[in-house]
Amino acid sequence: MNWLKPKEMRFKLLSFIILSFFYVQSNGQHLLQTDGKAIVNQNQDTIIFRGMGLGGWMVQEGYMMQTAAFASPQHKIRDTIEALIGTANTDMFYDKWLENHVRKIDIDSMKSWGFNMIRLPMHYNLYTLPIEDEPISGQNTWLNKGFEMTDSLLSWCEQNEMYLILDLHAAPGGQGYDQAISDYDPTKPSLWESSANRSKAASLWKKLAERYKDEQWIGGYDLLNEPNWNLPGGQLLRAFYDMVTDSIRSVDTNHIIYIEGNWFANTFTGLTPPWDSNLVYSPHKYWSPVFNVSDIQYGLDLRDNFNVPIWFGETGENSNAWYTDLIRLFETNGVGWAWWPEKKLETINAPLSYLKSTGYQDLLDYWSGATNTPPSVSDATNGLMQLAENLKLENCVYNRGVTDAMFRQVYSDETLPWANQTIPGVVYASEYDMGTINHAYYDTESYQLNPPPAWNSGWIYRNDGVDIQENSDTMNNNGYKVGFVDTDDWMQYEVNVQNDSIYDVHVRVTCNGSTGGNFHFEADGVRISPSYYTPNTGSWTSWATRIVPNVIMQKDDKKLRIVADGGGFNVSSFEFVPVGPTSGLSYEFVDGYIDIPNRVSIRLNKSILPIQAAGSNGFVVTSNGITQTISGIESDSNNSRVLHIDLGSGYKFTDVLKVSFGGNIVAKDGTTLQPFTLEDVENLLPSVHLIPGRVQAEDYLNVVGISLETCTDNGGGQNLGYLDPGDYVDYEVLVLNSGMHKADFRTASQSSGALNIQIVDSTGNILSNLGSANFPATGDWQDWETYSFNVPLTAGEHILRLAITQAPFNLNWIEFWFGGIGLNPSLTDERILVYPNPSKEHQISIEVNEKMIGSSLKVTNYLQQEVHEIRINKPHTNLNLSHLSKGIYLMKFYNPSDNSTVLEKIILQ
User: Fold this and answer.
1) 493, 546, 708, 712: least CB-packed within 10 angstroms?
2) Quick one: pLDDT at residue 400?
3) DSSP per residue, 783-846
4) CATH topology (fold) of 689-817
């Protein structure tokens, strides 16, 4: 995927904002209109909406109130309440609900959090009667309630210089099969089954437009939320939009109209081209990937093809990581958005969470059948009224991590402390830093896509992938524990270390497994403890203390991490107890790595005084067994536990480096660094595709005009699709041999396709043309076939470009062979399967078919030195490579029965 480096990304995004996003100024002319692909105010400033939808206020939905199992649309919720407490008490509850759900303090708060627009989901029945209740058929009785609520909301928005977009969320009759979204009652005619309902909707819009035609802080009219009905060709939907547009334009030619497609806003069949000069298309986005621009291309195509703005008018209901990535994607592409919703009942993924009253829980238990005895009318009414009281913002829980993810984290990877953490003292596991994934924490499940799994299994306290649950521990308990810990999960804590000291760390854990998981601690990226197993405590609620001894923490340590080396445990806290001065432990090497081509870095268990010296200073670095020239040594300016060894030449990701030491370096506490010999250096240099080998089409460096889609070929994953002539895709490759290579292209299509194979430089200039490839139709878009071509390649690192000349077709992978040797990473050819790859434990499983039994296997490094050899005597073989250092190796399978050779690249981490 073509991601920018973090610093480059932040700089480009910040520049884009400064140059392109002009937010509302109090002395400007605020009426909005469209100008090509942009929404602008009267000063021609581009406005990018950062909006919030007020879901659950005028239109209740069962999932927000935990009633979906027995009452999902609002009319059923109301009927259920009314059957228990009567009409008068129900009216009293709904009056209080509408009064407390959204108040000026809500709008003030959203402004302070960073929002500049409010989307109002309207229920028509607050503005006019249902058609079946009209005293005179065909006429409209107007109700003051909805208009007065809208007037108040507009006033609060105006005072905060925020736009208000009106959204017909529940239209007369309901506009979709999904009953909850539009309060659809299938016993009555829908919007689409009744011309009277459609006329009423058009009349309501005319009434609203007439009332607000001169209001500059009205951002426009969202004509219909998420229609989801069988409307062939979109004809009836287009006719409805035409009728509403005419009604609005008869009284208001100033404000923008927003158009949503059928099937939950995203199918615009019959709705293009635009029919109004002040129109914006408004798709929605839920539970889908947010990795690159192709994930919102369905909206961008509307903008680019018809030269009109788009606005993603509803999205949300996901994790903080998903929020951050999607908003970054929107704003990088100049697209505004509105989130959903502001508040829900006991939630972690909205800015505000209102709490259940005890009486309301009793009602849920009765309505769901958990209890058989109904609460009394008095108790039920009191429980509902308390629920309405809990709606007030000052009574809600503010999920600060949500808004931080939506604004600050979009443009910054800086982490902020969730709580003050002082050492010595107790650090609570759930109080890890606030920030982006891979910087404040890592969790193996961080998004919810469709289908799930969900990103969280705890559903309390915070909205990251970290799974937090209630905690019953009697020691060092803040009320929460971190559970469902998986291998490689970690959490980071900004700490204030009072004194340099050796600490014993008392870790509170539970485990219900025979061996439990295991973990270690790091400080500012340096490992400060071995890996320790959690004991089997007998159950997930039986707590025990695991003491991790001899952990050195220093005053200049700022970021503490707990890292799960193996999952399967819960953790609630870790208490740092000082046991002695740091001089009580020897000064030792921890590990080494290379992430800059001409520099090896080593991490030590203690801080060193600042050092900068020419020469080796006692260090020896080897690359592929050859001693390297050291030009200087220096301590890291930001981390006193890290030393950098500058080398005279650059290195590649395939190089195997080791470091030794036999000099005299002293820590701050006066201890001398212990000698060490041939310690591994982890190679973190960027990897490229090896040739010979297989290149997965989606693992590109650059791409223009191409999208990804789910692939059903052997191995699954994704394939390139939507290819057009003029599109191209680039790959970074390392060619091991000069000469003619066979290139196998895996394609699928309903028509023929073709491409040119080129070598380009870093700016895209063509250095050489290597030939072309032509592909016949395979029958359908997921009917995969392999076609082979000869390609001359020169050894070395290159950027390989596939330039599309004839399309459309889909591409899954390209496999390059040299001298009959390729790298088969799967059982696609029904011969060999090697897994896991990469391997952290250096344990490899090999599966072969009957034809490969009796083959020899030789493992070599990239110097072609043989490091391991076995014979494959059965279909499944477990290979122990723990004696090998981290790096990249080749597995060479030779089958004497047919004189064939297959190579497999493996990575040992």
Assistant:
1) 712
2) 98
3) --EEEEEEEEE-SEEEEEEEEEEE---EEEEEEEEBTTB-B--SGGGSSEEEESSSBSSSEEEE
4) Jelly Rolls (2.60.120)
